[in-house]
Design a protein that fits this description.
The complex is a heterotetramer, with 1 copy of chain A (about 350 residues), 2 copies of chain B (about 375 residues) and 1 copy of chain C (about 550 residues). By secondary structure, chain A is of the alpha/beta class. Chain A contains 11 helices and 12 strands. Chain A is globular, with a radius of gyration of 21 Å. The termini of chain A are far apart. The chains are: A alpha/beta (about 350), B alpha+beta (about 375), C mainly alpha (about 550). The complex binds adenosine-5'-triphosphate (2 copies) and magnesium ion (MG) (2 copies).
């Protein structure tokens, strides 16, 4: 029971209590109430909205959309979900043909947003919409806004290593004596490719290739995805790996006693923070509804949901990341335009040349 | 190989209007000419039998008439309407011509009854049912209406095929060896029955057969084909007794030839002298010619004797009789048929005598 | 004249068919063109690459990956034939109990998306696999991880051999048993008779199935990806997801070139010159008495069935009960509508494919004109293109050609037809080749028009091929993912898109129920479909 | 319908060892018993002909012997070894028995030559080639080695099937209507050729035929089947002249019966008195019995007369002769064969007289 309600414009709309938006598990307990704008303080959503939502994390995020539809009986979302990059390319084509299908694009990574933005297939979001989010997580011209973040991280096994054993830069990994045959990675995974792209943008192609070769020659082990990498680290099969931060939290949430912790490199590609974000598709007839929808995604409840259910980095200052994660400003991400991550061609070429096909 | 003499037209050959006319019809498969400028007529209500050696083009002729093959050349007319020539081609389903296939072509997915009913599906159910059961009765398969074709014996399949082709009562029906898989008594019974039906309903039929007795006994006319062309067409008696070519003579019935010179109103042959008036069409104009006279097994008798004019080289039991093959001392083989009671042993020397009660046919002697 | 030359004189035996034949050829060609046109949009994409195209296409890495793909195709195709043909013989000709059950079981792996199977295999094996955990109490400590080239080959074989199985079955069902009997009385043992008589006659069927396997393998992305083999599709996929559509299109065209080669190979062994194996006296299906071997031999379908179906079901079910890896939270409730949607589109696709395939298959069986042959072969391009590539091409195509249909059900069904119609063409053509032409002629002389004869004689006789074709399209549509994801109307979810979504979200356990539903629904529909097939399946020699 | 009398064993019946023995062999298809406890032997090198109405189980019998069907009951032995009984079943390929199929069963994917070569593929290439060309010569298809079976005519197919079954020179060869699609002259030629080959190579053969002349003329023995069981087996003359059942009498050749009482050493029949010693096996013990005497067309003569004892109800032209069907005034039908020269018209009253030169067969009169 326990409704926060009362302020709502419409008697029929009841906002569930905060716990409903929270995940469950050891690392979630005892969180403070989130700051930021509550859904209660936002106008009601109503009408129909066509949503393109990227796969992967999007599957979890979509649960929040379902909750919005439960809260607002007059609000209906028609979704289509596919790989973010594929949706991005579709959007560009649809817009070019004058037949956009969706009103809003919720991508799980910034490169897809950047691709749509670069191809001018967006309409800018309202200023009030993007205002709560730090500028590093926005597109130029309000093209898109981040709604949840994820950081590259280094999961390590606490039984085998101390945090101090983990080098502060990825550059040092191949030369770290205690690491041969031990670093786990998942080169086919999109986030890994973004990481390599970032490295390429930061350091240039040749050093990146050399780094990949050195890693491979040092016996880096391939895994199908980074969740498996994190599992294997927790199992002690490998002491350390490269993975998005939330995979380790997922493992921890299930196996609270697992000897698993996260380290972060600083200032280099290994500390890249990528975001899932929303974009208004050019030609939508429902510009205001899209703005309002995105504001809902940036509400306190939504951010709490993303933080506690998918262990993402919240995008508004009032909401803490889960567990003992450093806050976003404690991380030292590289200075890089996230939209530029969409240029993968050279990255793939480099990876191939290095014998680490993606 | 076989020279042709003038044909004596049969008396009734122009009685009735032709319902089917083939005119110079030719059909080749690659280098092989299966049917070679074939021309003949079939008259309304007539039963014509096509006879000929295996591979001579009989089935192809039927297929051409039915519209399953298109002639390379020539014209086919039904009731005076052209159904196939250079420019015209009437489809098989519009020709009202039924065909019993040599290899039956029963529909494997339909029961026996459904096969028979296939061509009359547009009639009222009850009529179909009645006709199917009548026809199955006719072919002695009343109990098999529900059987699948592939559980039938060879003869049973053939009978179903017959019933199926009769069902729609086509104007013209083509029967490709309709009784070849039937035993003699069933065959005799069926062919009389079929002939009766054809005659009653006035259906015109062309039947292919390898059974001479069948050809001679039930046909109104017999057409003998050889290597794609027509050798002779005529009433059974004519074809049998007055073959126009050696081929026909040898193809129908066992044929022996005895040679002699026609002189002084008689022909002197190894089996005795034959008066010219016992030989059909041997006019004075042929005086002095060397001729071969056709002798059938029943025209000759072989008497065992130590001198004689020949020797038994083969004998064949046929039930009621023995047929002896006798090699004449002058060369040449003749056949003699004897009652099975008087047996001659193989290699026995015999004297062969003529014993004729009808006029014989003759051919100019070959070089 | 050789047999081949002779056969060329066979087509159009009913003499008036030439005109209609030409008409039908044109129709077939038009249909084929309609199916292939969308792929033309790939060329448009490639043009964007300009002169780089040649370099990219011939780079050493491209060729190396291509070679690996071809090797995988060869291994999987051979494996499928080795599994599929014996199973077909077993379920058609052998005196085994519960034939229908074994038939459905043997065909069922086709209903399981191979990537799910691959996923289950990877999860089940290896040092921490589900299987090891389950067997640990029994003292099993490790099971080697099944992955890499061998793993991919294994999984693909297990999930694609049903193509060979089904098409071979259709051929065997129309085989004239008296031919095998003739061989036996000519002192050929069972095996020799099979090799010298049965095999040559079912070869078009086997080849049709093998072709589908080869092209499926060539175009599959999920399985090699999960098994960590870098194959060409993955190469393409990586470029596509890296926003390099033109490059991906170029590579796709290369893949289509490989397809052309495979098609050429198939038409050598397949039905082209050795077809028209109609023989008149069909004595129904032959029965092989297995005697004591009967039960041991059933281990084959059991084993294959167990790996292909039971393993994923068990793995997913374990996750369903244990929560499995992934998030504890998140709901994404399963809805039965997904199942209904799957059935509905699969049904529409099967019907549409049969309608499209019929003229193409009949024409190609009856005629040896180049155009008819081309019409028969061309649609395979749609099948061989990786799903994602085809989906992209179709997006461009429909946006340009018929924006009103973009993301509508008709377009989705069209996509399925483009993608899967070759499956129907292949099996229908094989059975059309086995219809004895004199039967049609008999129908014509019994007063039926060409169409009437077709409806009442040809159609029932090629029913096994139609049924098989429809079943193949139905099953593959049920599990198709890439095109469905991209082309479905908004809000239209199917079992597979749901599975994809929960899997992507890491909610592996939630895939269990829909995966199970997929298998059960496919199994049931397969049983229904195969039931129709048994018309000619009399056990005359029992 | 047909009673059986004692069989007189044929003189040579036990000359040679049996190579093939059927003992109580039964085979049913559902409710239908196709072969019903059939027992007979075939002796080494013999040519046995199976005769019987369509659907009586001939093909099934051959299939049982070849190993293509398994008997429900009974035993088949080849050279004394059991090849099929309750527990044993030797596979077709291990029986060394060749079979020519009634419906040919040519391999459609092989050319004519390849079809013939099929059973001898293990021989050296050259030997295969020679044998194939010899056999194709034999069947008159030397030019067709490369043809596809489905471009052949019916008779050509049959000849290929024959060549194929002869090629491996099996110990025993089963021929299911091997000549049914051939014209008479080819048939005659082929069967003499085949008989010669069989005899030369000592091959044992069972041949099914519907051609009586064939059955009587080439067989060492004839076996008559009816409805799945054996009616009579014996030498052709025995079966023809001394049938043990009415069925056999009627099935082989045209049969008429005349009834009379056996009294005072003679039987008084509507066609005249027959002395008892002209009737085979009519011993004194039957004195006073009512019997039917079998009369064949050649045993009777019909003389046109206005009183007479019967009436011509049907006549059939066979080429050399006419066969008249005469309805006797006392009831019953008899057949008379006359030379084609003396014709009787239909409905003519005639006097039918016996004209016999051999002993007649008889059966007790049916109630
Ligand atoms: N596979 C089968 N299933 C059911 N019935 C069958 C099967 N094979 C044969 N029969 C039946 O058994 C009987 C005997 O058949 P069979 O083929 O032996 O006859 P047949 O003597 O060879 O006849 P024909 O001279 O017509 O070829 C027939 O009534 C036939 O319908
Ligand atoms: N479709 C075809 N292709 C090639 N040759 C053919 C074809 N059909 C028939 N022939 C050939 O044409 C000739 C005549 O064949 P057809 O079937 O008319 O003979 P037929 O007189 O019916 O012989 P049979 O009495 O043996 O049935 C044969 O030599 C045959 O091989
Ligand atoms: Mg013919
Ligand atoms: Mg038979």
């Amino acid at each position: 029971q326990g409704l926060i309600g009362g302020n709502s414009d419409d008697e029929s709309v009841t906002i569930p209590e905060l716990a409903t938006f929270r995940g469950s598990g050891a690392i979630i307990e005892g969180r403070p109430a989130p700051g930021g704008t509550s859904i209660e303080d936002l106008p009601d959503l109503s009408g129909e909205l066509n949503l393109y939502i990227g796969g992967g994390e999007g599957g979890i995020y979509y649960r929040f959309v379902e909750m919005l539809q439960e809260i607002y009986p007059d609000f209906t979302v028609y979704e289509s979900s596919a790989a973010s990059s594929s949706l991005a390319q579709n959007i560009v084509e649809e817009v070019e043909s004058g037949a956009p299908q969706a009103d809003v694009f919720w991508s799980i990574d910034a490169s897809s947003l950047g691709y749509v933005a670069d191809n001018d297939a967006y309409d800018p979001l309202g200023d009030t919409v993007v205002e709560p989010v730090p500028s590093g997580f926005q597109g130029d011209d309000n093209a898109w806004v981040g709604v949840a973040g994820r950081a590259r991280s280094v999961p390590y096994n606490t039984d085998q290593l101390d945090e101090s054993d983990v080098p502060a830069t990825v550059r040092e990994f191949p030369t770290t004596a205690s690491f041969p045959n031990t670093v786990g990675w998942a080169p086919t995974y999109g986030a890994f490719k973004s990481f390599v792209t970032a490295m390429r943008l930061l350091r240039g192609p040749d050093p990146t290739r050399d780094w990949l070769v050195a890693m491979r020659e040092n016996g880096a082990q391939r895994f199908p995805d980074e969740f498996v990498v994190s599992q294997r680290v927790a199992d002690g099969t490998i002491p350390v790996g490269f993975a998005n931060h939330y995979y380790a939290l997922r493992v921890k949430n299930q196996r609270p006693d697992a000897p698993l912790d996260l380290a972060f490199t600083s200032g280099d590609a290994g500390a890249l923070v990528n975001v899932a974000g929303a974009l208004k598709i050019q030609g939508t007839q429902k510009s205001d509804l899209v703005d309002l929808f995105v504001r809902h995604l940036l509400s306190a409840e939504a951010q709490e949901f993303f933080a506690t259910v998918s262990f993402a980095y919240p995008m508004i200052p009032g909401v803490e990341p889960v567990g003992d994660l450093p806050t976003i400003d404690e991380l030292s991400p590289p200075d890089i335009d996230l939209s530029a991550l969409s240029n993968l061609e050279e990255t793939l070429e480099i990876m191939r040349e290095a014998g680490v096909p993606g | 190989m076989s020279e042709t003499r003038q044909t004596r037209p049969d008396a009734d050959e122009h009685d009735r209007p032709p319902i089917l006319e083939l005119d110079g019809v030719t059909r080749s498969f690659g280098p092989e000419t299966a049917v070679d400028s074939l021309s003949f007529d079939v008259r309304d209500g007539e039963l014509l039998t096509l006879l000929g050696p295996s591979g001579c083009g009989k089935s192809t002729t039927l297929r051409l008439i039915a519209g399953l093959e298109r002639p390379d050349d020539g014209r086919v007319r039904v009731r005076g309407d052209v159904v196939a020539d250079d420019g015209t081609f009437v489809r098989p389903e519009n020709r009202d011509i039924g065909l019993l296939f040599q290899d039956f072509a029963l529909f494997p997915h339909l029961s026996v009854g459904e096969n028979v009913a296939y061509g009359i599906a547009n009639r009222p159910d009850e009529a179909v049912e009645r006709r199917v059961s009548d026809l199955l009765d006719l072919v002695g398969l009343a109990d098999y209406a529900d059987a699948a074709p592939d559980t039938l014996s060879g003869g049973q399949k053939q009978r179903v095929a017959l019933a199926r082709s009769l069902a729609p009562e086509p104007d013209v029906i083509l029967l490709d060896e309709p009784f070849s898989n039937l035993d003699v008594s069933l065959r005799r019974e069926m062919r009389e029955e079929v002939r009766r039906i054809l005659k009653e309903t006035g259906v015109t039929a062309i039947s292919v057969t390898h059974d001479q007795e069948e050809a001679l006994s039930i046909s109104d006319r017999v057409a003998v084909m050889n290597d794609g062309h027509l050798e002779q067409v005529g009433r059974p008696e004519t074809v049998f007794e007055q073959p126009t070519s050696r081929f026909v003579a040898e193809f129908i019935g066992e044929a022996g030839f005895v040679s002699g010179r026609f002189a002084d109103g008689r022909v002197e042959t190894p089996v005795g002298d034959v008066p010219a008036d016992a030989i059909a069409g041997l006019d004075a104009e042929y005086e002095g010619a060397d001729i071969d006279v056709l002798v059938r097994p029943d025209d000759l008798r072989a008497v065992p004797t130590d001198d004689g004019n020949g020797r038994v080289v083969h004998r064949q039991y046929t039930g009621p009789a023995f047929v002896y093959r006798v090699e004449l001392d002058t060369g040449g083989l003749v056949y003699c048929e004897h009652n099975h009671a008087d047996q001659l042993s193989l290699d026995r020397r015999v004297r062969v005598d003529l014993d004729i009660d009808h006029r014989l046919a003759w051919f100019p002697t070959e070089e | 004249m050789s047999v081949g030359d002779r056969l060329t004189s066979l087509p159009d035996r009913v003499a008036d068919d030439t005109a209609v034949g030409t008409g039908l050829t044109l129709l077939a060609a038009a249909l084929a063109a309609a199916l292939v046109v969308p792929l033309g949009w790939l060329f448009v994409d490639v043009l964007g690459l300009g002169g780089r195209a040649i370099d990219l296409a011939t780079s050493a890495t491209t060729l190396a990956v291509l070679a690996r793909s071809v090797a995988l195709v060869a291994v999987v195709t051979a494996g499928s034939v080795l599994v599929g043909v014996p199973l077909a013989v077993l379920t058609v000709q052998a005196d085994i109990p519960f034939k229908r059950f074994w038939t459905v079981l043997a065909a069922l792996p086709l209903a399981v998306p191979s990537y799910l199977g691959a996923f289950a295999v990877v999860s089940a094996t290896g040092q921490d696999g589900v299987l090891v955990n389950a067997l640990r109490p029994l003292g099993v400590e490790t099971i080697p991880t099944i992955d890499g080239f061998t793993g991919a080959a294994l999984v693909l074989t297990v999930y694609t051999y049903p193509y060979v199985f089904l098409t071979t079955r259709a051929s065997l069902l129309s085989l004239d048993a008296s031919l095998v009997e003739a061989a036996r009385t000519l002192n050929s043992g069972r095996w020799e008779a099979f090799r010298r008589v049965t095999l040559p006659q079912i070869l078009p069927g086997v080849a049709a199935g093998a072709l589908l396997v080869a092209l499926y393998t060539l175009s599959d992305f999920g399985t090699p990806n999960i098994m960590h083999v870098e194959v060409f599709t993955q190469f393409i996929y990586a470029r596509y997801t890296g926003f390099m559509r033109d490059y991906a299109a170029l590579l796709s065209l290369q893949l289509l070139a490989v397809t052309a080669v495979i098609l050429a190979v198939e038409s050598r062994i397949g039905a082209d010159d050795s077809g028209a194996y109609a023989s008149s006296g069909n004595r129904g299906a032959l029965s092989i008495r297995l005697g004591r071997l009967r039960y041991p031999l059933l281990l084959l379908p059991l084993l294959v069935g167990a790996t292909a179906i039971l393993l994923p079901v068990v793995v997913f079910a374990l996750w369903l009960t244990s929560g499995g890896p992934g998030y504890a939270g998140g709901s994404m409730a399963f809805s039965w509508t997904y199942g209904w949607n799957s059935l509905y589109v699969a049904f529409l696709a099967a019907v549409a494919s049969v309608l499209v395939a019929l003229p193409i298959a009949l024409r190609s069986a009856a005629s040896d004109s180049r155009l008819a042959a081309l019409a028969d072969r061309a649609p395979y391009a749609g099948y061989a293109a990786p799903g994602i590539v085809l989906a992209i091409a179709l997006v461009s195509f429909s946006l340009d050609a018929a924006p009103a249909f973009y993301k509508t059900l008709p377009l989705l069904v069209f996509a399925y037809v483009v993608r899967f119609v070759p499956q129907a063409i292949g099996s229908m053509r094989t059975s059309a080749l086995q219809v004895d032409r004199t039967l049609v002629e008999a129908a014509r002389t019994l007063g039926r028009s060409r169409f009437g004869a077709f409806r009442s004689v040809t159609l029932p006789l090629i029913a096994p091929g139609i049924v098989t074709g429809a079943a193949l399209v139905f099953l593959t549509t049920m599990k198709e993912l890439p095109a469905t994801l991209i082309l479905r109307p908004l809000g239209f979810d199917t079992l597979v898109t749901y599975i994809w979504r929960v899997e992507e979200a890491g909610l592996y356990g939630r895939a269990a129920l829909p995966a199970l539903v997929l298998v059960v629904v496919s199994g049931l529909s397969m049983a229904v479909i195969l039931a129709q097939e048994d018309t000619g399946d009399g056990d005359t020699n029992e």
